[in-house]
Amino acid sequence: IQADPEIVSEARVTEREWYARFPSFRTGGGGYAGLSTLDRVRPEQVPGPDNGWLGSNTGGYVNPELVNLIDRYFTTIPFAERGPVLQSVFHHITDQVVVMPLYYDANPSLIGNRLVNVSPAYYGNPQMWDLKA
Question: What is the value of pTM for the model shown?
Answer without folding.
Answer: 0.63
